[in-house]
Amino acid sequence: MNRQTSAAQHGADAATGISWLALFTSLGTLVCCALPIVLVTLGLGAAVAALTSTFPFLITLSQHKGWVFAVSGVLLAVSAWLTWGPRGRRCPADPARAAACARARRWNRRVLAAGIGIWAIGAFAAFALYPLARWWDTL
Predict the structure, then answer these.
(1) Three-state secondary-structure class, residue 90
(2) How many other C-beta atoms can be found within 10 angstroms of the C-beta atom of residue 99?
(3) Which of 21, 26, 51, 123 is the residue whose CA sits 20 to 30 A from 74?
(4) pLDDT of amino acid 131
(5) Where exactly are the structural domains of the chain?
(6) How far apart are CA 123 and CA 33, in angstroms?
(7) Mean pLDDT over the full length of the chain
(8) What backbone torsions phi and psi does residue 85 show, to the nearest 5 degrees?
(9) Measured between alpha carbons, how far is 57 from 61 in angstroms, rounded to an integer?
(10) What is the pLDDT of residues 53-100, one digit of tens each?
């Protein structure tokens, strides 16, 4: 394996790892911040109480939701740069490895798109839903 192929493989592995990490951190934004708000909005406050008593770390995460969203947003941005940036477009010249690289790039894009979508839903629920509901009640 030559040096260029090794560098391309390492770049694909890094993009894959960061894409999955970004997906899981964006799922964390849903669990910590969006899920409790949606449950309370639907009148399921007892479910939120049971959830936070079972998983007390959710309270800490929701108290620091700005940091949670910032860290997951940075990870999503790095993942997007690794996926769609100049290094994310390179694949080896070998046909078998090029096919595997193209398959990995497709999955990276899917995982990244899912992470961005989940992050956007979580951000809307955590930062905009309550002010919108209060504004709607004043109309």
Answers:
(1) coil
(2) 12
(3) 51
(4) 83
(5) 3-138
(6) 8
(7) 80
(8) -75, -175
(9) 6
(10) 998 888 888 888 889 888 888 888 888 888 887 776 777 788 888 888
Q: How many residues does the chain have?
A: 139
What pTM does this model have? 0.70
Query: Could you give the CA distance from residue 95 to residue 6 in angstroms, rounded to a whole number?
Result: 15
Q: Which two tokens stand for residue 99?
A: 């096919």
**Contact present, 116 and 81 (Cβ < 8 Å):** no
Enter the DSSP assignment of 46. Answer: H
Find, among 18, 35, 33, the residue nearest to 112 by Cα. 18
Residues whose CB is less than 8 angstroms from the CB of residue 129 and which lie 6 or more positions away in sequence, other chains included: 37, 38, 41
What is the number of other CB atoms lying within 10 angstroms of the CB of residue 18?
21
Q: How many CB atoms lie within 10 A of CB 30?
A: 17
Residue 102 and residue 91 in contact, taking contact as beta carbons nearer than 8 Å: yes
- Asked if residues 83 and 15 have their Cβ atoms less than 8 Å apart, the reply is yes
Asked if 33 and 67 touch (Cβ cutoff 8 Å), the reply is no
